[in-house]
Amino acid sequence: MAEIINLNQFRKARDKADKQARAAENRVVFGRPKKVKTLAEKKAAIESDRLEGHRLKSPDEE
């Protein structure tokens, strides 16, 4: 015979697990301090400028 389960408890447990997974993802995405974020943005801008400086032709000339 099959085991009897309470569907309401099953639904609540599933929703709780989903919320915990979403919270873990958000901690990774939004959990960086402002100093680290600005440093990463500055490094990306410097790298973009360096890469743009190595172009032989600008995109408008093509």
Plain-language structure description:
- With 62 residues, this protein is mainly alpha-helical.
- It contains 2 helices and no strands.
- The radius of gyration is 24 Å and the shape is elongated.
- The N and C termini lie far apart (74 Å).
- The mean pLDDT is 90.
A few lines on this structure:
This protein is an all-alpha fold and 62 residues long. Helices cover 71% and strands 0% of the residues.
Order of helices and strands: HH
Alpha-beta content class: mainly alpha
Task: Give the oligomeric state.
Answer: single chain
Number of helices: 2
Helix content: over 70%
Low-pLDDT residue spans:
none
Strand content: under 5%
Give the overall form: elongated
Work out the radius of gyration. 24 Å
* DSSP summary, beta strand count: 0
How widely separated are the two ends? 74 Å
Indicate the mean pLDDT: 90
- Report the sheet with the most strands, covering strand number, pairing sense and barrel closure: none
